[in-house]
Amino acid sequence: MKKLLITGATGNVGERVIHFLKNNRQGFEILACYRSEKDKARLSKITDITPVFFDFEDIASIELAINQCNILFLLRPPHLTDVKKYFEPITHLAKKSGLEQIVFLSVQGAESSTLIPHHKIEKLIVESGINFTFLRPAYFMQNFTTTLKRDILEKDEIFLPAGNAKFTLIDLNDVGKTTANILTNNVLHINQAYTLTNQEQLTFQQMAAILSEELGRKISFKSPNLLNFFIQKRREKIPTAFILVMIMLHYLPRFSSTPPTTDTVEKLIGSKPINFREFVKRENSSLKSPSS
């Protein structure tokens, strides 16, 4: 029986991957990574998975975990930017252990965005000679129910330095379904890269309009300059490293062409990924103002 090692198992992506793997069992054992005892206890409540200690900053834990699996689903924790320090050892250990395949959650455009960590990680994996599959998802809709939720609930606004840039979008449920499909049919996807989007290209102004219509209240979009954005987020006690990630994610697209959409998700899972309006309808209750 092949063993799938899922990093980030308690995060937004990892949880969904495990959920859809459990609904699509084909003779695989699921090893779910944890770093804290709290996460271990949480994973222990899920049937049919095996919690495995894995800490990106503890090489011994990485080696023990990789030696237990055949296929590694790899995510990059946002705070780990030193690719050589944290990811080169993973590829060395994977090669040494005879790992069958790495399925890496990258980002759309990573193949040409040489400055981002995902590009460097993809390059490391390719150079290692290990079989790979790269998943390059578009902008996560779930950012609206996590990172951007506070501004929407408390201020009825989206506050990002994104200007008029258009973004492609994807729902994490569709990412989870696609990833589970690939992991359970891994030999069909060896040395392939897939860009995962729905069929929309929207500005944040357009997304704010959809939010306004579906939530029944005006949601405005404000695009500050970088200094004002940085100052405001520091006032909100957002860590500097995370603010820089937000800037990279939302400001840099202003200077690039609009990313293309693909039909990859539909081809891989047999159903169309949801659009942004469908997402907002589904998540309506979590985005309702407390005063509503």
Low-confidence stretches: none
- How far apart the termini lie comes to 51 Å
- Arithmetic mean pLDDT: 93
Order of helices and strands: EHEHEHEHHEHEEHEEHEEHEHHHHH
CATH level-3 fold name of the largest domain: Rossmann fold
Protein name: NmrA family transcriptional regulator
Organism: Algoriphagus formosus
InterPro entries: Ergot_Alk_Oxidoreductase, NAD(P)-bd_dom_sf, NmrA-like
Could you please describe the fold and organization of this structure?
This protein has two domains: 136 residues, 3-Layer(aba) Sandwich (Rossmann fold), CATH 3.40.50.720; 104 residues, UDP-galactose 4-epimerase, domain 1 (Alpha-Beta Complex). It is 42% helix and 17% strand. α3 runs parallel beside α5, α9 runs parallel beside α13 and α10 packs antiparallel against α11. 37% of the residues are buried. The strands form three sheets. The protein has a seven-stranded parallel β-sheet, sandwiched between helices. It has a three-stranded mixed β-sheet with strand order 7-9-11. Strands 8-12 form a two-stranded parallel sheet. The chain has 292 residues and is α/β, with parallel strands linked by helices.
